[in-house]
Amino acid sequence: MEKIFIEPTKVTPLVNFDPNEGLLELKGRSSPENSIQFYAKIIEGLEEFINQGGDEFIANFAFEYFNTSSSKCLFDVFKRLSKIDASGKDLTINWYYEEDDDDMMEAGEDYSDLLGLDFNFMEIEED
Amino acid sequence: MKELYHDEVSNLDKFRKKIDSRTIFKEDLEFFSEQYEELIAQAKVITRVSDRLQKKLDTANTQIRDQNQEITDKNDELESAINQLVKAKVGKKASTILFIITIALLIFEEYFIDPLLDQFSGSDYISIGIKVATAIIAKLLEGKLEEYFLNREKDKIIRDDYGKIIVKENT
What we know:
By secondary structure, chain A is an alpha/beta fold. Chain A is built from 3 helices and 6 strands, in the order E-E-E-H-E-H-E-H-E. Chain A has a single domain, classed as Transcription Regulator spoIIAA, CATH 3.30.750. Chain B has a two-stranded antiparallel sheet. The longest helix of chain B is centred in the middle third of the chain and has 95 residues, at about 25-120. Chain B starts with 5 loop residues before the first helix and ends with a strand.
């Protein structure tokens, strides 16, 4: 299983996906020109983890902003995380949001409710 | 390259093919209804995210409008302050020039006109009259001189395309 590390840009988040450690981190802003292409490798990696990965998986999300097409791709990411959860692996999802950013917190709540996943909501100080 | 909703479109195509070939089983219908349910969930999440983005955009637009209004108000205040400053500056300049001219005229009158008046009329009233007339004319001229300097200063102040005040450098 291949590690993925992508430096953040103004329109793409930091991606740190280490399937061997069972860790996925997405942090920053997400409004790539082609969201499907950007998130494709992460989704493929998660599919692989479902079949071959370890017993534990931690996913950390700390978005400042994501656009509509990214929200669709994030839904696909959470769908895979839901499969990891359903496969009996120990799944932890941490959803970080900047203080006073209620919109971002509510976005996390939406994903959590709609996919039946447990999120740990963590408020962080603004940069 | 995959497009958004590639998987969903692909599942729909497969289902339609099954309808066409009349080989639909209960499992196919279950799978299709699951897919449909998931699409509804996606639509919900995406609509909420879009609504929030729209709200943020609206808030940002309102802030920009408020800031623009504030900039316009400040610009007006600045313009008014500059005008007052220019008026004070040119007023002082005009007063100084006329003060010097008046002094010069009074000295001239004292040393050149007064001896002539003493020689021909011997009355002090004409001399006083000339001095008073000089003072009155100087006062009247002060307004005109002030207006002249004010116009010159205004010519130095121009506005850019956005209505912002630009002060020309003295060359």
